[in-house]
Amino acid sequence: MPYGMKSKIPPSVVKRLTKYMAHVQQRQNEGVEWVSSVELAETLGLTSSTVRQDLSHVDFFGVSRRGYEAEGLRRVLAGVLGADKAWRMVVVGAGHLGQALVLHDEFSRRGMKIYGIFDKDPKKVGMKVGKLVVRSMDGLPAFVGQNEVDIGIVAVPAEAAHRVADLLIASGIRGLLNLSLTHIVAPRHVPVVDSRIIASLLQLTHAIQQHVPASGGKR
Amino acid sequence: MPYGMKSKIPPSVVKRLTKYMAHVQQRQNEGVEWVSSVELAETLGLTSSTVRQDLSHVDFFGVSRRGYEAEGLRRVLAGVLGADKAWRMVVVGAGHLGQALVLHDEFSRRGMKIYGIFDKDPKKVGMKVGKLVVRSMDGLPAFVGQNEVDIGIVAVPAEAAHRVADLLIASGIRGLLNLSLTHIVAPRHVPVVDSRIIASLLQLTHAIQQHVPASGGKR
DNA sequence: TAGATTGTTAATCGATTAACAATC
DNA sequence: TAGATTGTTAATCGATTAACAATC
């Protein structure tokens, strides 16, 4: 188990750890060297109690009256989250979203590299996307094996999502990022994380509706 | 308050309601007319108890020995989530991701329409993205007001995110979808939902690491 | 030193699950 | 009818918050 990680961290805590890491990085860019649980809490809309409780899952200790040393905390959080590793990824689905992911430079800046993009549509196969060429699905299993690809990003329409996920799993992928609306069932050793923009938008429209005054008027 | 909604539904439940709706739609496409709490639970990796408990937040009743009538359930869930309304959106940030959202046809299929895309980079302003032309940030507040835009999608780099969010809020936007890593603080009447692909990837890499055997070997 | 901030325990709060009477 | 499935109550489980001694 990587350094800095203590047994199992609850998913709710892991989500917040990503926010802590982002905030610490941002503060470091501003030249700040220490952060406190109160500062983190206020910025992220939490209680300082939650922040301290969360950080107790991680092998790093703050200092009374000073807080947490930023660089040390960032490094430990990066270790726990795996942000210090060079993960290898493939994107399946060369639609607008899949292409955008390949062209997005945030990944490479963070050490995550997309090694291949695949599509079943013969019209898309061979097309250039940044430095990559869209490959046919036939070659996916061999590609994943030979390049020791860790992560598969599922960026295909809902109907095709589970078929694609099954193929990636059979190819020996270690984890899936699911961008499709379909729920993906995978074996226990292959974690799946959903990042579904349509679902997020529905959460948002639900929340907006709740704020509509009872009168039903506009705004 | 829209029909079918009972007072306040916890966020954890709302998230699952989006999944239930997606599953019911998929089953309807297959010609199925009834779904049960057991079927929903098994497909989505939940207990049937959770499904029934969740659906009790919604103004729709199942039938003993048959389950839930698919079309009725879909319609009520759509009402609760706001999926039956024509939401008006703008995208701020005409990078790869922002452009992909405009070109993505899933939104229009779901009645969500992107009315404008904005960028502060003069080199991007004027560029065509699908049927839209990238606009300068100057025009954002007037555009939001005149077009009665409901939702702002924040698709800019972390540094710019909060400035953009503040501008959208000042323009009278009703809700924000945040795709940037920055945490956005908004007034209570402006809900913010995060959909951050980098954060999701970090949750995934954390989960993958946990599955590494203690020996530290590959796979 | 005085007092701000930590780490941790215990209490509270909320979410999930189990159980089962009601029902079609 | 018999029995499968609902809606709901109560029990369990987990996550958040409050409180405070320890400490730098």
Structure description:
- The structure is a homodimer of 219-residue chains.
- Chain A is an alpha/beta fold.
- Chain A is built from nine helices and ten strands.
- Chain A has helices spanning 11-29, 37-44, 48-55, 70-81, 96-103, 106-109, 140-146, 158-170, 197-211, and strands at 34-35, 68-69, 88-92, 113-119, 128-129, 132-133, 135-136, 151-154, 175-178, 192-194.
- The first copy, chain A, has a six-stranded parallel beta sheet, with helices on both faces. A two-stranded antiparallel ribbon of chain A has the order 1-2. A two-stranded antiparallel ribbon of chain A has the order 5-6.
- In chain A, a hairpin with a 2-residue loop joins strand 5 (128-129) and strand 6.
- In chain A, helix 1 (11-29) crosses helix 4 (70-81) and helix 2 (37-44) packs across helix 3.
- The radius of gyration of chain A is 20 Å and the shape is globular.
- The termini of chain A are far apart.
- Chains A and B meet through helix 1, helix 5, strand 9, strand 10 and helix 9 of A and helix 1, helix 5, strand 9, strand 10 and helix 9 of B.
- The first copy, chain A, binds a DNA duplex (24 and 24 nucleotides) through helix 3.
